[in-house]
Each structure stands twice: as C-alpha cells, then as structure tokens.
C-alpha cells in the first residue's frame, strides 16, 4: 500500500486503526526539537489530531518518552491514554491511574555534585536531574560535549554496569541499566486497551530503537524519523492523514 501525504510517498504498512495501538515518542517526533526542554511548542492542531486518533483506535494511544511523566502531562494533559516516562522507568497505564516505578539503584550523590560543578564550568550547559538518572545538555555549548562525555564515562567505570551512558540529542544521559523503551512497549501491550492489538511505535532517537525493535517483534510497525518520515512535521501530517481517512 502506498499512502501519499503532501507529495511524500509512504510505502510501509501499519495495521488498520481498529487493530492498531499507537505508541509515540515525544521530543523530535510529536514535537520539533527546541533549544531547551522547556521551549518545546505544541504545534497547532496536534492535540485535536491525537484526540481523534485515540477515539479511532479504541483508546490505544500512549506516549513513551525519556522525559519524566509530569513533563509529558504538562504538554499533553489527558490526550494519551497511557504514558511511560524516563524511557520506561515510570509508567501510568491509564488516565488518573497510579504511576508505577521500576525499582532501580539511586544515582550516587557525588556524581550529581560533580555534574552540578561541571555544568557551572561550561556556561550554556545544564544538568537535568531525573528520579533515576540525569542528563547533561550541551545544545547551547556544543564544544562542551567531549568534556561532559569524559566525566560521565568516568562515572560509568565506577558504576560497574548498574548505569550506562546514553548518547542523546546534544546531550549525554546517565541511565540505570535494564529498562528501556522496548520494555515499556511490551508492558503497555499486555493490558487493555492495548492488548490484542498490534503496536505502531514511532521515534527519532537512539533510545527509540528499543521501542522500534519491540513493536516489530510483536508483529507491528516500528518507524523512525528521519528514515521513515523526513521530519516531525511530516510525521504529524501522516498522523493527521490517518485521522482524515476515517472521516
Ligand atoms: O524520548 P523523548 O520524548 O524524545 O525525550 C528525549 C529527551 O528529550 C529532551 O531533550 C531533548 O529535547 C530538548 C527539546 O527539544 C532539546 O533541547 C535537547 O537538546 C534534547 O536532548 C529532554 O530534556 C530529555 O529529558 C529527554 O530524555
């Protein structure tokens, strides 16, 4: 099947909407990358498109992000049925439900202290502290990337496998080992309204590869920007076309 959206031809297949579950990454997929995490803007029409998609797929709409769940709530409110945050470490399976957190080791305090001191020596860099890890952002100071990486690699040697260093978009992320977006896809797909459907996972980053692999393994579709969609805007237009096709 070929679907043409704004002159772009898409040759991959996804399940019919009444058999599909949609699991979308946030930054760089649903929304464009911005100079800082707070500066992200919800594009016009996206909220309404996602609300309609959720109705058409029987509520089986989730967002799986590296961000903490409260940040996804800030941008998307009650739009997705389920949300997985921190790459699957925290999962809320249904609207208003409890947030389930995987039991993982805490980041050693001295790493955080050293990370705080490090970003102060590189103006424009910043530390984003998550419950189970942290991110060193260098988008505004690209020349700091190697120094931040070297510091994080030293912490990883000390971690002896309990944590690992993830290359992110203009950032280095220290994450506990063992939980990833593939785990989040598998766990969400076990329960209603996702169970019995085929997952369609879409992401843009290295961390999304685990979600893509899991979705394919379950007989669904795993799609990536820019391989399958040239840009987040093209992806959003494709989602809008799915909704439009059901009118
Ligand atoms: O899994 P995602 O939803 O794609 O989240 C990945 C990370 O996104 C955020 O950082 C990235 O996006 C920022 C806003 O566009 C950008 O300024 C930054 O350079 C990117 O690295 C977020 O801050 C992280 O916590 C997420 O893990």
From TrEMBL:
Any GO molecular function: metal ion binding
Reaction(s) catalysed by this chain's protein: alpha,alpha-trehalose 6-phosphate + H2O = alpha,alpha-trehalose + phosphate
Pfam families the UniProt entry points to: Trehalose_PPase
EC class name: hydrolase
Coiled-coil annotated spans: none
Alphabetized InterPro entries for the sequence: HAD-like_sf (IPR036412), HAD-SF_hydro_IIB (IPR006379), HAD_sf (IPR023214), OTSB-like (IPR044651), Trehalose_PPase (IPR003337)
Keyword Ubl conjugation: no
The keyword Metal-binding is assigned to this record: yes
Enzyme Commission code: 3.1.3.12
Required co-factors: Mg(2+)
Keywords from the named record: Hydrolase, Magnesium, Metal-binding
Pathway given in the UniProt record: Glycan biosynthesis; trehalose biosynthesis
BP GO terms, sorted: trehalose biosynthetic process
Role played: Removes the phosphate from trehalose 6-phosphate to produce free trehalose.
Family statement: Belongs to the trehalose phosphatase family.
Designated name of the protein: Trehalose 6-phosphate phosphatase
Gene (name only): otsB
